[in-house]
Amino acid sequence: MAKKVSQHYLAIGRIVAPFGVRGEVKVEIHTAWPHRFTLLKEVYVGDEDARAVQATQVESARLHKGQAILKLALSPDRNAAERLRGRWLFVTRDKAMPLGEDEYYIHEIVGLEVWEEERYLGRVVEVIETPDEVNDVYVVRGADKELLLPAIRHVILSVDLEAGRMYVSVPPGLED
Question: Which of 22, 14, 13 is nearest to 79 (CA)?
Answer without folding.
Answer: 22
